[in-house]
Amino acid sequence: MILGHHYQRDSIIEHADETGDSFLLARKAADSEAEYIVFCGVHFMAESADILTDANQVIVMPNIRAGCSMADMADLPDVEACWNELLANSNLSDPATREDAELPAESGASYLVPVTYMNSSADLKAFVGHHGGIVCTSSNAEGVLEWALERAGDNGKVLFFPDQHLGRNTALAMGYNDDDLAVWNPMMEADWKALNAAKFVLWHGYCSVHLRFTVEQINDLRQAHPDALVIAHPECDRTVVDAADASGSTEMIRRYVDSAPSGSVIGVGTEIHLVKRLDAQYPDKRVVCLDPGVCPCSTMYMIHPAFLAELLERLAEGEVVNRIVVPSQMADDAILALDRMLSIVA
Is residue 331 predicted with pLDDT exceeding 70? Predict the structure, then answer.
């Protein structure tokens, strides 16, 4: 089975058996009985597929160098240092000390619950699973944060990494305010006054593609097309999300375009390949990227059709290359967090 992320170029998507965002593809991998799963996405997605599938299933990538700059902004040593400092400078407890981390916290409890975005390495997912936390995607982030808050207790906190913007936009949409949010930057001295007052501690990470979108771009589109609709990915800056008509994952963006009235002009704040594909799929609507000069996600673009062809030819000859294998102990901890993610309805 070939899985293709929405951000892949058309010459990859045309060969995919299933397409979707990271959440949907995680489900497809978990539900598959395929002997070989070819993941046309980035490295952390293939790692998650290996964790969620059976031991006799093989996960491979056309190019194992395809990573994610956002995922690289949080590594295990830095997250562990942050975790230990937060516990040492607060009255919070590690959820791993609880008898059952799956249950909501007891009254008056104060736990620090870790949440990692799907865009993170397997060792961070394992860290989260070991400490009673959960993985999220942009599709189910709100449900995941509600789950985490129940387990943090009335006086607890959520540590969210690596994308601060998804964490911030989701928390604000849930009714929290700026005083409930604090940013942890491993390169800066900690602001303990803000951190101790916050309900959410957000890692200082971001997506370089989604930060290209601006309010000025939205204003320019609406000046040219006063009735234009705008939807932005929640990895965008909060000002962009606030100015848009809607915000959501790549799957939600697809549904939004599908349900828009015929004749609509729709400005989209996400990766260019998906935007162009939506424009081609809906000829009765005009779907445009908010940033006319936006570049594709450079790491997704490393999955080239020639690499896919070579991989498939070598598999046909019985040679397995570019296999993704997560060590068993790491996988055992990570699957706890991923199974919790899959239990949250997007």
Answer: yes
